[in-house]
Amino acid sequence: MKVCHTNRDNFYxxxxxxxQSLEKRPLVAELGVLRGENALKMYAAxxxxxxxxxxxxxxxxxxxxxxxxxxxxxxxxxxxxEYYYGGSMHDPATWDALYNECAAKFVDKPEVSMIRADxxxxxxxxxxxTGIHQFDLVYVDANHQYEYVLRDMMRYQEFLGEDGIMMxxxxxxxxxxxxxxxxxxxxxxxxxxxxxxxxxxxxxxxxSDVILVxxxxxxxxxxxxxxxxxxxxxxxxxxxxxxxxxxxxxxxxHNISFV
Length: 259
Description:
A nine-stranded mixed β-sheet has the order 4-3-2-5-6-8-7-1-9, sandwiched between helices. It starts with a strand and ends with a strand. It has nine helices and eleven strands. Helix 6 (146-156) packs across helix 8. The chain is α/β, with parallel strands linked by helices and 259 residues long. It has one domain (2-257): Rossmann fold (3-Layer(aba) Sandwich). The chain has helices spanning 8-21, 37-46, 82-85, 92-105, 122-130, 146-156, 175-179, 184-194, 219-228, and strands at residues 2-4, 27-31, 50-55, 112-116, 135-140, 160-168, 197-203, 210-214, 234-236, 246-249, 254-257.
């Protein structure tokens, strides 16, 4: 696994180059879309044949923020993040505005479909509304709590063939992540034990992104070649160390430590 001194935008360009080498315009799904800003970056970098954006855009998402009636003292209340969402997270109008903002970004892109549903309810809708039964890339960025991330990964691997790619956002342990009750890194560890997916690259950043492929896929070698011949600095470590990843804070920048 390559620990890359870069950001996820460069990963998208790397993915675009990999798909280009395969002479493929990919089929892409994003779970958790919000304003559509990240989806637009993926669209520009990868030029997908089809893209499906899945998000509930609903206040119901708040219900899964913590499984406890009394919020643990180390977890910030969901209302603390209203500034990021542009309004009360309990007001349907906030979510309608986010949905409309996203839709406006893709109004002139007929190859992009939006499905307003939670990730599990969306599974049948994807097949019915788009006819897609297999994606080349699934980007997982919906509910970030452990059980929900693991469920998304386990269910959406069904949409990925032998050479399919899964990408995770916010896959690290950090002070800010703890305040948001993130369980992405822990879900990844469990997912790796249950499946044949392995991480091949991770960004050396806070809110780290991770690229996963099946261990016997030709993509393992393709990513190795692509990164080796790129200008992205990296160090290579055994992929089994990914679950030890945590953010350390220096005076100049954040780094990922595996100690």
